[in-house]
Design goal:
Shape: globular
Helix content: 25-40%
Radius of gyration: 23 Å
Number of domains: 3
Number of helices: 16
Strand content: 15-25%
CATH architecture of the largest domain: 2-Layer Sandwich
CATH topology of the largest domain: D-Amino Acid Oxidase, Chain A, domain 2
Distance between the termini: 43 Å
Number of strands: 18
Structural class: alpha+beta
Largest sheet: 10 strands, mixed
Length: 521
């Protein structure tokens, strides 16, 4: 369980400096916290909003090697990602599973071309592969993806990749770090960096809930703020050159009947050079993604009309019945932190390699990468922190480290599978109070007991935390999540000892946010 009040008390103590302070609670920051804490370092992590508020909750929900990077010839990145995919599938079986994909072939040459490519993909995964790829005839292709357009279809290529719930993995990583002694707090903003004799020695921090500011000392400070890394780098050095280019990708979520089979569809190359997916996920289908350069980073990016039209047009090309605007349950956008490489503004051509930098004053910045390689990114940045700051040099032990909640081999979580071994705690809540079995909304698969658990154990502080990230209600059905907000606010208010004014403020704030996820004509 994570206890925010206890974490803040330990952070405010100030008597003994932390070994490592991590700024940023997305995939890279949380991974670094797990790695450093597992090595035995004293770790603090602060996040200005909620864990995975930004990019890390807005992915395509895939743990994959990257077919696009295979086509670009970046074999080292693909190999690393495929091996990390295998490790994550093994270390977090409650959150990551194998998903079948079919590449539909509409010309004779696509079968051998993509078939050979996927055999290379299999080989690069080595012993950590999922299942072998194979060629499919026309009939079997339509059995696997029955809503694929049949006109001119000649066959397909079947392969496997990983699928996961990104925001829930982030929560479980935060809990894993806490299990190993890390001190974690969301809604804590870094106001500025502390320096002594020109060297960074900590940060000034503000608790966004109480408004209280305090100093936090640390021997190493890691900047893991994703698309916002340049903001913190400029606090260290106002003249520093930008390190990140921002790219936006959007996804549309539609009902399951648009892709009723068990396999996903992968289109290897779209007009903008990206891969397009139609993926079954939690009873719906996720369609995406785009690659649109953005001039600045924002916390709540919004899809633009051209992006929505792009996905709808491509869906129409490959599905026998394409969704219309009235079918879209939710639309979400995320920003990618791509490491700058010269003046090339075509973000679709930039790879997802991660990059590290140490400033003259000692600020360690980690950026780039993707969810699949979060563990290797964390290993690299903690190795660097040990090397540059004089911390004891302990070896990384996360390659085989089970993520919080990981069940024993052969165990299944049933209805509460995404919670892993914590699922029993939700069952216990319902046993003690059967009313907590009630659904949050008829069109959402979540019950009241989950909200109680998320507040008590997972550091949920707002209605958005519950409906956007602890559950995925906002992405599965934005309108239904708005209808569920008053009930969630009431349940949370009782747990957090909040008043009616807080409840009303939460409902208004969440409604305003969620309306931006509804498809507008």
């Amino acid at each position: 369980m994570m206890d925010r009040a206890a974490a803040l008390e330990e952070m405010r103590d100030g008597e003994t400096p932390f070994d490592v302070l991590i700024v940023g609670g997305g995939a890279s920051g949380l991974g670094a916290a797990v790695d450093a804490a597992q090595r035995g370092h004293r770790v603090a992590l602060i996040e200005q909003c909620d864990f995975a508020k930004g990019t890390s909750s807005r992915s395509t929900k895939l743990v994959h090697g990257g077919v696009r990077y295979l086509r670009q010839g970046n074999l080292s990145l693909v190999m690393e990602a495929l091996r990390e995919r295998g490790r994550l599938t093994r270390n977090a079986p409650h959150l990551v599973h194998s998903q079948a994909f079919v590449i539909p072939n509409y010309t004779w040459w696509e079968g051998p071309f993509y078939g050979i490519g996927m055999k290379v993909y299999d080989r690069l995964a080595g012993k950590l592969g999922l299942a072998p790829s194979r060629w499919l005839g026309r009939k079997e292709t339509l059995q696997k993806i029955p809503t694929a357009k049949p006109e001119n279809l000649v066959g397909g290529v079947l392969y496997h990749d990983g699928q996961f719930d990104d925001a829930r993995l982030a929560v479980h990583l935060a809990m894993t770090a806490a299990d190993h002694g890390a001190v974690m707090a969301n809604y804590c903003r870094c106001l500025g960096l502390r320096k002594e004799k020109g060297r960074i020695c900590g940060a000034e921090v503000r608790d966004e809930e109480s408004g209280e500011a305090f100093s936090l000392r640390a021997r190493a400070v890691i900047n893991a703020t994703g698309v916002f890394v340049d903001d913190l780098r400029r606090q260290d050095d106002p003249e520093v050159a930008p390190m990140v280019t921002v790219s936006q990708g959007i996804h549309l979520v539609v009902p399951r009947h648009f892709l009723p089979g068990e396999a996903a569809i992968m289109v290897p190359k779209t007009a903008d050079g990206r891969v397009l997916f139609a993926v079954p996920w939690q009873g719906c289908v996720v369609l995406g993604t785009t690659d649109t350069p953005r001039s600045e980073a924002v916390l709540e990016p919004r899809a633009v009309e051209e992006e929505r039209d792009f996905i709808m047009t491509h869906a129409e090309r490959y599905l026998s019945k394409a969704p219309g605007p009235e079918d879209v349950l939710s639309i979400f956008a995320g920003l990618r932190p791509l490491v700058r490489k010269g003046k090339d503004e075509n973000t679709a051509k930039l790879s997802r390699d991660h990059s590290m930098e140490v400033s003259e004053s000692g600020l360690i910045t980690l950026t780039g990468g993707k969810w699949t390689t979060y563990r290797k990114m964390a290993e690299d940045v903690v190795d660097l922190a040990q090397e540059r700051t004089g911390l004891p040099k302990h070896a990384c032990g996360t390659a085989d480290l089970g993520i919080h909640g990981a069940p024993s081999e052969g165990e299944t979580g049933g209805e509460w599978a995404l919670y892993g071994t914590d699922g029993v705690e939700i069952q216990n809540l319902i046993a003690a109070d059967p009313s907590l079995a009630g659904r949050l909304h008829p069109d959402l698969p979540y019950c009241r007991a989950e909200v109680i658990w998320q507040v008590r154990a997972e550091m949920a502080r707002t209605v958005e935390d519950v409906l956007a990230r602890r559950t995925r209600a906002l992405l599965l059905n934005a309108s239904a999540s708005i209808a569920a907000a008053p009930l969630v606010a009431d349940l949370m208010a009782r747990e957090l000892n909040r008043d009616a004014a807080w409840v009303q403020k939460q409902i208004v704030a969440y409604t305003s946010l969620a309306e931006g996820y509804c498809y507008r004509m």
